[in-house]
Amino acid sequence: MAEWFIYIVSLVISLLSVWESRVLWKSGNKSGSVATCFLSLSIIMIIVLLILEVKISGLF
């Protein structure tokens, strides 16, 4: 159950980051938009790697 909660939270964070990136892109702040996109991808990858590490170690 906790695993699905982590997946949902990471999805929400990524969607909010992508939305913010879109807003920044439309306002003309292209570098801020790209940085926000990379931030959202980094957050997703860290969470996925943590989940995989926990699964491999057998805690779930």
TrEMBL record:
Transmembrane feature ranges: 6-25, 32-52
Keyword list, A-Z: Membrane, Transmembrane, Transmembrane helix
Name of this chain's protein: Uncharacterized protein
